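Let's practice the habit of predicting before peeking. Look at the sequence and jot down your guess about where helices and strands might fall. Then scroll down.
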Amino acid sequence: MPTLLVSSKGQIVLPAALRRRLGMGTGARLEVLEESDGLKLRVIRPVATADVKGMAGMVKARARGIPRRLEDFDPASLMTRSRRAKP
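Done guessing? Here is the structure:
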């Protein structure tokens, strides 16, 4: 089992083989949990964010019927239209 040395700044260095096995690159974050018998380090895996603009055009559906407008999906305008349609 490898041992780690704490520097005067409180820093530790994880062995390269361990970092590769865990997929840790520069800037990787670890969570430190204090337990009754010592410390536990856990790799924090950030969730990648997606740019919505990059997803435009990924799904293409055939157009059916008349083109829809943003107003067609507004609940308030739908209620107004339904009231006007009733005699």
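How did you do? Strands lie at 29-35, 38-44.
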